[in-house]
Amino acid sequence: MTSTMTMIRAEPWAPHAAAATESASDPQNRRYTTTANGTLSCCGGWQFVYGGVASGHRYRISWEGVWRDLAEPLDALVGHVYWGDIATDCYAPGTATVWDYVCAEIDEGVARFSAQLIAPEGVSVVTVRNSLRWTAGGSVVMSEPTVLDLGAHQQRAPVRVAVATGTEASCREPRADVQQCVDHYLGLAQQACQQEGAELVALPEICLQWRVPGHPYDGAVEVPGPETDGFADLARAHDAVIVVGLHERCGHAVYNSAVVIDADGSIAGIYHKVHLASTEALNGILPGDGFPVMETGVGRVGSTICMDSSAAESARMIGLNGAEFLVLPIMGDHRASTWHLGPPEFDEERWRCIQRTRAMDNQLCMVVARNMGRGSCIIDRSGEVLAYNDGNQELVVADVALDDGFRKWNGGCFRQVNWRQRRPHLYGAYASDDPAATRILRA
Fold first, then answer.
1. Which of 3, 138, 142, 216 could staple 70 via S-S, CB 3.0–4.6 A?
2. Range(s) of the domain holding residue 215
3. Is the whole-model pTM more than 0.70?
4. From CA 152, how far away is CA 11, in angstroms rounded?
């Protein structure tokens, strides 16, 4: 049963008198106005205090702001929730208060703030704050926030994740044909499901053609098809999500693909490798054109493949698209190999740094399946290596908490801070296709 919380009081707030915005209220119509003070350093607004908060309950907190004359409303308008009673001049509550961002969707002069948040232990009051900042002009009229108690939060169970590659020695063995690869990796996936109880299984890059001689055109398979049917049956039998790397034939095109098979045996989605390796880009393989995230039985799963890891945009797009898991089938990373001519030497320290950074920067669990076994790993979004294959294991397994509760030292949620601090309007060159953006290559 849900219930709406009653507001105790509404009050203007500002971090300093010199920064304070101008405030006006219309309590009868539940409207609160904040106007810039004529300086770019302005910062302030209204905060609303609600009592009767129950620890461990989930709350939907929402309000609307109608803004005028703001050049960058996503920059200028910001929402916070402080789990406690916060002074009207407090901008840094220290380590005693847990706090959350409330993000907004901007549409034709209206900012709609909404979040579902869980009240931490030991609190009975929540302060909802909306602010106007970083603008000399403009204003916003905010509605009184609605705080809806959705009841006790039911924490999601951890997900058991397995990366099944085989040992480094077995990974070097040649394969006669695709069917031999299917049999080998299906056996590893079966071991992960039957013996380890895995709910998410990751297999390596193009594992259904790994070590099979010939051109990718010769061994590419259609999806779904006989080569993936066994994995679908296994997924269905064990209520597991299985990600299979393969060369996929789509009509005349061949892709380097990661096929996400859902727990009911259906194809949840297919990712086509966007950034092809230098030799791969000239062998007739076609690149993909997007970074889909699939809703699956274990949560939201996205994938990148091998060379994608070198482009920071790849993992960032998976994160922005809301993934909880990034499954990375990969042969290797040129940044973690020899930096001179000659046979590649695997630098495990660099490798770990790369994968841990991807997890932290994009606030998701990295599930890395390397074709040679060694270096395959499972890393949570705090950067903690939960499981690592030293090359002597058929597979590695870890339990990954989805409701992990990771917070910064000062009480903020890691994931919220990671995304809310972004200022996308300043990143034009980051994703530009303007030839001028490649000037570093032409210097």
1. 138
2. 159-404
3. yes
4. 29
